Amino acid sequence: QAITESKTALQLGGAPGEMRGLIGYAYAASGNRTEAENMIAELKRLLPSHTHAALDLAVVFSALRDRESTLHWLEKAREMKVSDLIVIGQDSHFAEMRSDRRFQELVQQVGAPQ
């Protein structure tokens, strides 16, 4: 249902990266790796003009439980000055990352509440 609702939001003009990130996250969380990877490819095509796509890529990779790629894209989002990074410390998409020292350092660097 989350996938259907997110696709509808995308068709109605929702933020292209963020909607694809949520769709990719839902696919990954439901075990549909192929569709999650399709969303990853779409998000990468949005870069560099849609910088938020870097954060959305991190969201999808977090659902795939790929820590290295999640951290890579979070760092890219920091480099691109994506303002939404300010909430990553409390973002449920990154709950499993909270124990990672590198994630904790990134949270501190961007001034995110924990």
Structural topology:
Layout: H1 2-11, H2 16-29, H3 33-46, H4 52-63, H5 67-79, H6 101-110
Helix pairs in contact: 1-2, 2-3, 2-4, 3-4, 4-5, 5-6
Can you offer a commentary on this structure?
The mean pLDDT is 88. The chain is built from 6 helices and no strands. The chain is globular, with a radius of gyration of 13 Å. It has 114 residues and is mainly α. Helices cover 64% and strands 0% of the residues.
Helicity, in percent? 55-70%
SSE succession: HHHHHH
Provide the structure class. mainly alpha
- Could you state the oligomeric state of the chains shown? single chain
Biggest sheet descriptor: none
In short:
This protein is mostly helical and 114 residues long. It contains 6 helices and no strands. Helix 3 (33-46) runs antiparallel to helix 4 (52-63) and helix 5 (67-79) packs parallel to helix 6 (101-110).
Keyphrases for this structure?
6 helices, 114 residues, 0% strand, mainly alpha
